[in-house]
Amino acid sequence: MISVLIVDDQELMRESLRILIDANEEMKAVGLAKDGMEALRMVASLRPDVVLMDIRMPELNGIECTRSIKERSPETKVIILTTFNDDDYIFNAIKNGADGFLLKGVSKSELFSSIVTVYGGCSAIDPQSAKKVFKLVGRLASPGATADRIAAGPEEGELTQIELKIMQLIGKGCSNKEIMSICNLAEGTVRNYISNILKKLDMKNRTQIAIFAIQSGMMLHDY
Fold first, then answer.
1. Does the predicted TM-score (pTM) go above 0.90?
2. Distance CA 55, CA 185 (A)
3. Could you tell me the maximum CA-CA distance found in the chain, to the nearest angstrom?
4. Which of 34-48, 116-130, 131-145, 189-203 has the highest mean pLDDT?
5. Are 127 and 148 contacting, i.e. CB atoms less than 8 angstroms apart?
6. Which helix (H) or strand (E) holds 100?
7. pLDDT for 127-148, tens place per residue?
8. Which of 203, 173, 171, 209 is nearest to 95 (CA)?
9. Which residues are 27's β-sheet partners?
10. Helix or strand or coil: residue 5?
11. Mean pLDDT for the chain?
């Protein structure tokens, strides 16, 4: 059973999402928060698997709340609920560790699929949000951060060949189990490689890895 915390300053949105989540036999809405401060208290006490996070809220907005959640409970997944005019918020959400992005008004099946996806450790970005994310993601990396440059040599901090391959597979949407099979690695080894990649590139989660892999041109290389 996937436990879900719903965070939104609009009561109608909170209740609507709760009804949808509880209608799915594999999920349970364990709490409703009206702002970021209340969400932090609920995350601490309820330890939900996934948080559905509104961006624009009083007291503490969804960006700052996401950052705090990831610092205090890094295993908790956060899906940002966004609108078409939230470009700057999306950029900051990426920097602060959001695991997925959904437009408000997304279909029920897409909502369920996204929750399952991030719960399983992968990224979930609906196509329309993806356009915004890919447009903005260039700001995440320093100028000239391309696949050719990061693979240029064996200096300290450079990515190894297997790390580049894993980044590419994450960019393709592969889960850890799929990466294990393709690269013939143990599960713990895959997790260690991903941790090393995050550290070397100063990123917070695999969402950023996936976006960087696509934006940098890594998907066109053979590793």
1. no
2. 38
3. 54
4. 34-48
5. no
6. strand 100-103
7. 666 656 655 554 444 444 444 5
8. 203
9. 2
10. strand
11. 82
Q: How many CB atoms lie within 10 A of CB 73?
A: 16
Q: Considering Cα of 24, then 110, then 94, then 161, what sign does the dihedral take?
A: positive
Higher pLDDT pick, 54 / 155? 54
| Residue 195 to residue 190: CA distance in whole angstroms | 9
Q: Taking Cα atoms as reference points, which of 204, 221, 120 lies closest to residue 169?
A: 221
User: Of 25-39, 43-57, 133-147, which range is least confident?
Assistant: 133-147
Q: What is the pLDDT at residue 131? A: 58
Amino acid at 200: K
Tell me the residue length of the chain.
Answer: 223
Is residue 185 predicted with pLDDT exceeding 50? yes
CA distance 30 to 42: 9
Q: Are 150 and 202 in contact (CB under 8 A)?
A: no
Cβ atoms 3, 28 nearer than 8 A: yes
**Residue 166: which residues within 8 A CB-CB, separation 6 or more?**
179, 183, 190, 193, 194, 197
Backbone φ/ψ region at 6: left (φ over 0), alpha (ψ -120 to 50), beta: beta
CA distance 145 to 149: 6
